[in-house]
Amino acid sequence: MARLIEVDDPTDPRLADYRDLRDVQLRRALETEHGLFLAEGEKVVRRAVEGGFTPRSFLMAPRWLDGLADVLSRSDAPCYVLSEELAEQVTGFHVHRGALASLHRQPDPPLDAVLDGARFVLVLEDLVDHANVGAAFRSGAALGVDAVLLGPRCADPLYRRAVKVSMGAVFALPWTRVPDWYDALPTLSARGFTTVALTLAPDAVPLEEAVAGRDRVALVLGSEGHGLTTRWEESADHRAIIPMAAGIDSLNVAAAAAVACYVTARR
Amino acid sequence: MARLIEVDDPTDPRLADYRDLRDVQLRRALETEHGLFLAEGEKVVRRAVEGGFTPRSFLMAPRWLDGLADVLSRSDAPCYVLSEELAEQVTGFHVHRGALASLHRQPDPPLDAVLDGARFVLVLEDLVDHANVGAAFRSGAALGVDAVLLGPRCADPLYRRAVKVSMGAVFALPWTRVPDWYDALPTLSARGFTTVALTLAPDAVPLEEAVAGRDRVALVLGSEGHGLTTRWEESADHRAIIPMAAGIDSLNVAAAAAVACYVTARR
Q: Could you mention a single GO BP entry for this protein (chains A, B) (predicted)?
């Protein structure tokens, strides 16, 4: 059972994991250095623990204790209990759904473990926006993706905003970073995946056609602004497009991911 | 040609349209009272003017004047020119892509005008989040929607964040509010549209099946949290679902809109 510890001083050093959650720069440094990440909201906290992540601590207002009683009963981490006003002073914003947990990161699993048994892999090269990463995970989990691979520079799926937008899908789907950016797609091809890059390249075919009848597919998306790097665009087995209305040449990357997952799952 | 007016006092009353853009409450009151809305960024400002909206004024740093020269040349509204630092003091945030315009709202067009010639209408009952409204317009415009109808309480497509996320699609797609909430869907059925509500209702069929072979379709989405009202759910001709992975029962509404538009456009 988690130890309940009432706190009435927002500068208490034991709350260090929860400081200034809106300061992206500071949080990145702090979370990397200490190997932690945050989950926010009763549902997402529960999914993080059920996904196998070990809590370092919890922080919540008293009224959230009951709803998370089952989660707290299975942990021996401290649970800091404080008023919503004090929690806001610590985190720097009003915490929706009141409960937070700080959890230990785990080393990225090896590629083999993530690909084991997967028939549909979503590959995100360089997404910059944490909300888009979270949205891609959420849509992927709902629409048939088995695993996610990330380029070396892709935004962190365990950053708080990504976790929240994903509704915890970042804990449910296996994922890892590709070990070798340059040969990431040929490596997947060599393992029996048809790699399909979403792009506006001149030889792009409609996505439905590119994935039709394929067994194992890796669907590859680039960054919000510039799309895929030339290397990934050219080293994919196929270049594909979501057909769009005349005069319009782009969808938001989260919308494109959702449509592309839907189409690929029905190949 | 727009009159260029250099401003060096951020409290200048002529800049009133651009004050405190992050204060949602204040902006709603101000924009409603004065019948205005804001467009942000060179591309979106241009699309607003090309979409037939009349500028009240422009506000930009000197380096954006060239890129918008063609737009400014066709307007006789004042263009307030000030440094990016001063612009930030007026608006309360760092203006990406530097240019803003304040434009006159127009009365909502009549339903007949919006439906004229339309075969695929997207109907948003009660979206709360401006970004989701903007995303639905952007995906809709890209994926074959001819017109958009909004429930009386749906968030405003001309609110700055909606305009921005839509990339200007709110100026390109015809849209209006439904005049009668209670009979909104039967009214569409009477005009020859098959109304298809996205819902988790027990009699929901896969969307692809619900729209197959239909001529005119109205695709109906509810709010982020609770989905459609019972009245709309029950008064639609069909209830439909986007098939999802086991154990997952929802997509983000913007992702659902994108997938549903893709499927419906291919009916």
A: methylation
